Amino acid sequence: MQKIKLGKTGFEASKLGFGAMHLPRVSPEESERLINKAIDMGINYFDTARAYQDSEEKLSRVIPKRRNECIITTRSHNWKMGIDVYIKDFETSLKTLKVERIDFYGLHSINKKDELDMVMGKHLEFLKKAKEKGDIGHILISGHNHLVMAEAVKTGEFDMVFFPFNVIEKEPLETLINEANKRNVVTAVMKPLGGGVIPDIPLALRFFLDYDVDLIVPGIASLRELEENFKIISENRKLTKEELLTLEKDVESLGKDFCRRCSYCQPCPSNIMIPFVHGIHQKCYGKPKDENIEYMLNTMAKRLLPSLKTCSECGQCEEKCPYELPTKQRIKDLIAMVAQ
């Protein structure tokens, strides 16, 4: 597996990273086998977050035993709950992962300019002190709004930026990727398969080989996914013009109706997490129920159900959405799918 120098950090990582967000659907024993297999194959970059249920715990079954072979990244979305909660999340991650230092730690899901402004105070001060103490190696920021991520990179305070980029979501090409590369900030790509909606996985992953990004980090939950993704990235075959046209044609309809999770629609008066509504809808609506869809409906969708039922259909979300997505109808669809 090709190794990439990660900016100014001194690390070298496998081009293909291991996204742990889907590990909660895998048994502890199977996750242990999967993580060990990934390391044996040459993958050394592992990404998780406090929000990913028991993924940190499952990584801790392997990472401490093979610490010198792994780069571990995690982050917290609880910055919004205040600095004390954020610090507690960090301490929990450090304890749960059973490591003395987290290689990259930071801020999860910063999607608006006012959110970025908020965390540039006490939160950033805490991260800098943790870095000085050696509790973390480097500071990262992640988010779904490419404009906000570009502004974060320009501050010079972050060593890594983690953002969605794929054949549907090409917006990072406008500014973000160039700004990060100019400052030697590590670029890590989340949602390389569009959250699971891009049908041709080989073409979707080969798409990135034409762009100057460091890490490609799909969520991995099976040996089949691991081996398929590894083979595709290891072969390092760029798309032909004909293949790119095929890929773009395959996702053409999705592009018009695809939620970028920019969070312009938030906050919702009923406290509905609208980007999650669209993500689940895109993955599940009108599709035959397989194991993945059953999991999303029985876990993520059911957690949203109480708030979905309080929707007043005020329409504020649709008015604020730059992509004119039919949020009210998708909320109704999701309630119906969970009830089936």
From TrEMBL:
Gene3D superfamilies: NADP-dependent oxidoreductase domain. GO terms for molecular function: iron-sulfur cluster binding; metal ion binding. Transmembrane segments: none annotated. PROSITE patterns: 4FE4S_FER_1, 4FE4S_FER_2. Residues 302-331 form the 4Fe-4S ferredoxin-type domain. InterPro entries: 4Fe4S_Fe-S-bd, 4Fe4S_Fe_S_CS, AKR2_Oxidoreductase, NAD(P)_OxRdtase_dom_sf, NADP_OxRdtase_dom. Keywords: Iron, Iron-sulfur, Metal-binding. PANTHER family: D-THREO-ALDOSE 1-DEHYDROGENASE, NADP-DEPENDENT OXIDOREDUCTASE DOMAIN-CONTAINING PROTEIN. This is 4Fe-4S ferredoxin-type domain-containing protein. It comes from Candidatus Schekmanbacteria bacterium RIFCSPLOWO2_12_FULL_38_15. The lineage of its organism: Bacteria, Candidatus Schekmaniibacteriota.
